[in-house]
Design goal:
Layout: H1 11-16, H2 21-41, H3 48-54, H4 59-65, H5 69-79, H6 81-93, H7 101-121, H8 125-136, H9 144-150, H10 154-167, H11 173-192, H12 196-200, H13 214-227
Helix pairs in contact: 2-3, 2-8, 3-4, 5-9, 6-7, 6-10, 7-8, 7-10, 7-13, 8-11
Length: 232
């Protein structure tokens, strides 16, 4: 983790220990609703009242489980973070090694991008809303209210960074970070894409099958990393 939490995470298990099974179900339903509405509208596009309405609950109950919208958002970010980290890690671990840098990097990019795009077309609303909400709020990354918790997603990016350093040992660090920025910026937009790819490509590619872009993203960015300046 790159930034300290605004509050101690150890407080959460203690507070939740007193919740009944019924209370946990209510709490999870509220978090599911918030995850969906944040994915659609972003952090600042909705209120706790909107979340309560989506969860078919009341504002008083929501305030009982969560002290503020910021607190609710923080817990949503943490809830699926380990799941996504493990998914990306396992995908990268399964990428076959290669002595050819271009092949190796193409495999790594494919392995990194694939879990995100597969989630976008999957049937599980939870992970799909999660990747979309975290992508949507990246435009507010520097907001103090959000930055500390969004930074908690950095270890997922670090998985790719570490492997790229191994595959391209001569690559200048500034070049590596520039390439990573461009890759992640493209991925964030693809995850959010409400149909731009349909219009731009005249239907050759569709948002409903955005996972098919993996086959194009991998060689495109692999060649880009290969073309970046090397250490002198």
């Amino acid at each position: 983790m790159r930034a300290p939490s605004p509050r101690s995470i150890d407080e959460e298990p203690v507070r939740r220990a007193s919740l009944s099974a019924k209370g946990e179900i209510r709490r999870s339903r509220i978090m599911d609703a918030a995850e969906a509405i944040f994915a659609e509208r972003g952090y600042y596009g909705c209120s706790l009242r909107d979340v309560a309405a989506r969860a078919e609950s009341n504002l008083g109950l929501l305030n009982y489980y969560f002290r503020s919208k910021e607190d609710l958002f923080h817990e949503i970010v943490d809830r699926r973070r380990d799941f996504l980290y493990a998914l990306v890690r396992d995908s990268l671990d399964a990428s076959p090694p290669s002595d050819d840098p271009l092949t190796a990097v193409s495999g790594l990019v494919r392995a990194f991008v694939k879990p995100f795009l597969d989630i976008c077309v999957g049937e599980d609303d939870g992970p799909r809303n999660y990747v979309r909400l975290t992508s949507n709020v990246m435009s507010s990354y520097r907001d103090p209210e959000l930055q500390g918790w969004l930074t908690r997603l950095q270890p997922i990016s670090d998985l790719l960074i570490d492997r790229l350093r191994q595959a391209l040992p001569g690559l200048d660090e500034r070049s590596l970070m520039a390439g990573l920025y461009m890759l992640e910026a493209a991925l964030i937009f693809m995850v959010q894409d409400p149909g731009f790819v349909d219009d731009l490509t005249s239907g050759a590619h569709t948002a409903g099958r955005i996972d098919g872009m993996t086959a194009y993203v991998a060689p495109f960015f692999a060649a880009g990393f290969q073309a970046l300046p090397r250490r002198r």
